[in-house]
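User: quick one, fold this
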Amino acid sequence: MGGPVKQVVMSLVAAAGVVAALANPTSARAEDHIKVGLSKQIGFPGVPVGVARGYFKQQGIDVEMVFFDSAQPAVVAVASGDIDFGTVGMSAAFFALAAQGQLRLIASSGGNAPGYFNLAFIGSNKAWDAGLKSVADLKGHSIAISQVGTALHYTVGEAARKYGFTMEDIAVKPLQSTSNCLAAVTGGTVDAAVVPGVTVAGPVERGEFHLLSWAGDIAPIPAGNAVFTSTKHANENPDLVKRFLIAYRHGTHDFADAFIGPDGKRRDSPDAPALLDIMANFTGAPAAVITKTIAYVEPQGRIDKNSIADQIAWYRSQNLLKANVTADDIIDLRYATLMP
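Assistant:
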């Protein structure tokens, strides 16, 4: 085949390629490789579900998940440009860097809600035998958290507010990691701790320590985890940020649809087993454990503005945040959707 016939055929092939590219825009360009910082906890399902189900691929995004034991290093990594997005618990460090104009809040993830199990208050056997039977009994005791100025710290503050004691009435022990907190409670070197819910079922069944309460039952924070990016990304790559959020919200919707009923209460849909498998692969915890420790996840990734304002006020009251920042200063309404 040659001459005019060949030219016609090549023209048709080229035209077909253009049509295909228009029909599937992501096929016309190389995938955007991004790094997302998060923790291997049940309260952060949007990214792992979105990856497992191909939602990010559909948006032309190749995701590399980068794991952190605590929120603050992830916040610093996004601000420095080492990673592109973060989805971790909110913290004083997040609010401080956002106040400096380095970070933008664009969505939410999991949180504490009644009947859900994002975070747990646990007590040592020694303290239990001495009378520490509930979170209301914490006054005068020590309590471990991973780091000062994190969502875990704020959750302790919410418990103090509920039960009428102050942060000065307890001894907060920052032990740098969840595993250290669990070991300290098991060994009785601290009286209590706040830890991710997925870590407690096995040890409680083995009698290593006691479950005092699920945080959601005493300190509800329905959308307490942040999804954020750098201000540079938000300003210079709006198309990437929007495509990231489309995929992310697909993931959170699937998780919520699997485990949260129309009335907001826990129920398992036919899709629940598949989601349990995805989250088991993500967290490393067995599906049989995860199903007992499902976190509440805002289905659309909406942001509770009042909760953000309250967290800012609390961190300032504890002298962990110096900046005079407001929720309006850090929520990027080009991308974020607020809860009504």
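User: anything notable?
Assistant: The radius of gyration is 23 Å.
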